[in-house]
Specification:
11 helices, alpha/beta, binds guanosine-5'-diphosphate
Length: about 300
């Protein structure tokens, strides 16, 4: 990891001023610094993040999951461009991919995957950290969220391919959780694990186009029925089902209207902040446990 950091490392002042003025290149370097496992980088990264903290928290954090092939990158490209062009918001795209299936070539991979969004001056795409356990990747991603917010991004899209516990991880760091699905395939076929549907604030049935439209409409009815069987969410939100065709640019407006309503509702009854406070507590406990564990195993006597 450390080797990606440029030789002439930036100073604390250069990092913080660069980030707060929205400088992309400095932001990227700061994220790389935060991802580094070298203690020296870590200490500086923590200092930078602490300085940025007062400027964080203003974005809407949206988690996106679904099996490979469901259309996540296509959806993020379409939805992201809708947000930058129509809603006039800035968008940062992050990913959690602990197995690093897309590792190494992932920077190129993500750029190719989101061809237009990657050159949009109002968007920023950061590939998943390529090394480390889910815990490590999760921590870096949380820090990346904070850095992107300090750099002024309005909307964060956090994607996961949904391997292992990664959906739960993304769910626990985002305000709104989107599950992308396909019509006509059973849950087993879609590799949907128990609990994922329960976590979803909305299910998007993608590829609702051409011959799929009929099946998609049927699936919408089925999912709506299935969602009613889950207990209501604490914030009073009942999960929605929406149709989309990411490929044909259909559905973005509906999805955005829904998420805006959710944010409004959450802000009016304080649930938005409550949820974040709960998430922060969760991550604090997690961080303490991770560091205690780390110290335990690194202890010479124990070794
Ligand atoms: P990911 O693996 O979930 O990121 O899926 P991709 O975005 O790479 O999409 C997988 C394939 O599905 C690609 O060939 C896309 O062109 C196609 N695809 C994505 N969205 C749609 C859609 O809305 N309709 C149709 N017909 N194809 C789509």
């Amino acid at each position: 990891m450390s080797k990606i950091i440029r030789k002439n490392e930036l100073s604390f002042k250069e990092y913080t001023e660069g980030i707060l003025s929205g400088n992309r290149s400095v932001l990227s370097q700061a994220i790389t610094l935060a991802e580094s496992t070298l203690p020296k980088h870590n200490a500086l990264a923590q200092k930078v993040i602490n300085h940025c903290l007062p400027y964080t928290g203003k974005s809407i954090r949206i988690g996106i999951t679904g099996i490979p092939g469901v259309g996540k990158s296509t959806f993020i490209e379409t939805f992201g461009l809708y947000l930058t062009e129509e809603v006039k918001r800035t968008v940062a795209v992050l990913a959690i991919d602990p197995t690093s299936e897309r590792s190494r070539g992932s920077i190129l991979g993500d750029k190719v995957r989101m061809e237009k969004l990657s050159v949009d001056k109002n968007a920023y795409i950061r590939p998943s950290p390529t090394s480390g356990s889910l815990g490590g990747v999760a921590q870096s991603t949380r820090e990346t969220i904070l850095l992107c917010e300090a750099a002024g991004f309005d909307i964060l899209l956090v994607e996961t391919v949904g391997v292992g516990q990664s959906e739960t991880t993304v769910h626990s760091m985002t305000d709104f959780f989107l599950l992308l699905k396909l019509a006509g395939a059973g849950d087993e076929l879609q590799g949907i694990k128990r609990g994922i549907i329960e976590m979803a604030d909305a299910i998007i049935i993608n590829k609702s186009d051409g011959e799929n439209v009929k099946a998609a409409k049927r699936a919408k009815v089925d999912f709506n029925r299935a969602l009613h069987m889950y207990p209501a969410k604490r914030n009073g939100w009942s999960p929605k089902v929406k149709l989309a065709s990411a490929l044909n640019n259909v559905g973005s407006e509906n999805v955005w209207t829904m998420i805006s309503k959710y944010a409004e509702l959450g802000k009016s009854n304080d649930f938005f902040e409550d949820k974040r406070a709960t998430q922060n507590q969760f991550w604090l406990t997690q961080t303490i446990e991770d560091s205690l564990k780390g110290e335990f195993y690194q202890n010479e006597t124990i070794k």
